[in-house]
Design brief:
331 residues, alpha/beta, Rossmann fold, eight-stranded mixed beta sheet, 10 strands, globular, binds adenosine-5'-diphosphate, binds magnesium ion
Amino acid sequence: MRLAVYGKGGTGKTTLSACILQFLNYFGDFRVLGIDGDHNLHLAQELGATESDLQRGNLGTALDIGNDLEWLRGYFAGTNPFITADLPIIKTTPPGKGSRLLQFSDPAEWRERYVTFIDGVELIRVGDFTENDYRKKCFHSKTGSIEIFLKHVWESSNEAIVVDMSAGKDVFASPLPSLFDGNLYVVKPTRKSVSNAVDFLCHAHKFGVDMLLVATDVCSNEEVNAIESCLGRKVDAVIPHDEFFVKRDRILLSRPNHVREASFQILDALYSLTELLQQLPAHNWDKILTKMIYHHEETANDWAGTKFNAQIQPGFNPFEHFQKIPVSSLS
Ligand SMILES: Nc1ncnc2c1ncn2[C@@H]1O[C@H](COP(=O)(O)OP(=O)(O)O)[C@@H](O)[C@H]1O
Ligand SMILES: [Mg+2]
């Protein structure tokens, strides 16, 4: 299962991403990977990372994938002859023959380079702007690293990848949402959050992206009704307002780092949400492949240069590799 969490800044994306990761890992026995796709980089903190987690023993602090694009491109290109110095992997490049296609749980070099392990959760970060980026790059160039990663590393049914996205509508300038089984939009019962949700969901609809709506920081059923009436649709899951989250954020309060310390009402809400997520249809490989090729063609024809169309290998199905793995070895 692969999920992305969207929402206005300050609505609870990072809080929810961390809770889903910890809940699936601790109560659902899932192997989980969080991807901090925001430049605010709060997911490690939200997961309760200690200095020693971040230092990773002899390995030292992890690299950020968005600031390590050259290595990332070369690594996943593998021996694919259609990826060359002249035609490097761009974010929409579909995998081809020779590309490095990995099961999430495979021991692999990317893990040593990028992963920080925090109490059962593996975490990678896209990273913040660096000195070299000022006045030159927008954040898209970094979130492209998530697209490259998610096209080459595939999880199986007892594994979950959750991406804590940056706020805003930028994501619609990329095909990223089509790579997830579930796209979750987080909304709080505040005027600004709801008005952002109206706007975002309208764009999602136009782009053909189904969004699950999660209302959080909710104090009453009336608030849920008000959100539903403003948005003209049902809320799919509700996370109540709770002291657990207040304690996790206020600097003078002692911090519960793991969701196992949450109140019964929060555990109950997360149980319902994760039940819903587990009922999402499994990857439709054909649909994903069709969309990958479509988006790459559009990118090549619109702005990257038509020569990038040469990276598409007709008839090559990257997912046959995973479909051939017997189900018993996936669980
Ligand atoms: N269900 C909730 N109950 C109480 N506070 C919440 C709840 N969900 C989120 N919050 C608070 O909202 C604030 C913003 O959350 P955060 O996850 O950092 O937002 P984002 O990542 O969208 O910017 C934090 O102070 C967090 O504790
Ligand atoms: Mg955040």
